């Protein structure tokens, strides 16, 4: 049974940068699958609508400013996002509990709060 869940992107100060609804394949999923599902759906949106601001504010990064970008590869973007999670490039919270392992299992429902917190490098350090 698939589940629709609201996902928010937050800055390190707690400000909400973006909100989206993602459809997850089941209620019990691993952190790895949560990230992969989000990235795959972002890539689909980005590839369908190159002007989509929503897709560009998420985990997917499309390089360059060329107006004729090639379609974004979801597997490459998944690898980048999973590596970023593993190297603390962003934090993931589910119902205000920080996820620390890609293999953790979480239960998602329509009322679950999922937050991605992107870290910003300090200038000069």
Structure description:
This protein is 28% helix and 29% strand. The protein is α+β, with helices and mostly antiparallel strands and 125 residues long. It has one domain (3-118). The strands form two sheets. A five-stranded mixed beta sheet has the order 2-1-7-4-5, covered by helices on one side. Helix 1 (31-48) crosses helix 3. The longest helix has 18 residues, at 31-48. It is globular, with a radius of gyration of 14 Å. The relative contact order is 0.24. The model has no long low-confidence stretch (mean pLDDT 87).
List keywords for this structure.
two-stranded antiparallel sheet; alpha+beta; 28% helix; globular; 125 residues; five-stranded mixed β-sheet
Distance between the termini: 46 Å
Radius of gyration: 14 Å
* Strand-residue proportion: 25-35%
Order of the strands making up the biggest sheet: 2-1-7-4-5
Chain-averaged pLDDT = 87
Please provide the ordered H/E string of secondary-structure elements: EEEHHHEEEE
Would you tell me the structural class of the helices and strands?
A: alpha+beta
Q: What are the segments in which pLDDT stays under 50 over at least 5 consecutive residues? A: none
What is the tally of helical segments?
A: 3
Region (Disordered): 51-71
């Amino acid at each position: 049974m698939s589940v629709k869940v609201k996902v928010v992107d937050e800055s390190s100060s707690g400000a909400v940068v973006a909100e989206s609804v993602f459809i997850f394949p089941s209620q019990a999923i691993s952190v790895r699958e949560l990230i992969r599902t989000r990235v795959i759906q972002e890539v689909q949106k980005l590839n369908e609508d190159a002007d989509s601001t929503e897709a560009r504010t998420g985990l997917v990064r499309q390089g360059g400013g060329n107006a004729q970008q090639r379609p974004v590869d979801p597997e490459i973007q998944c690898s980048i996002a999973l590596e970023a999670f593993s190297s603390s490039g962003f934090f993931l919270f589910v119902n205000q509990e920080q996820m620390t392992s890609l293999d953790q299992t979480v239960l998602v429902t329509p009322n679950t709060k999922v937050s991605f917190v992107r870290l910003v490098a300090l200038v000069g350090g």
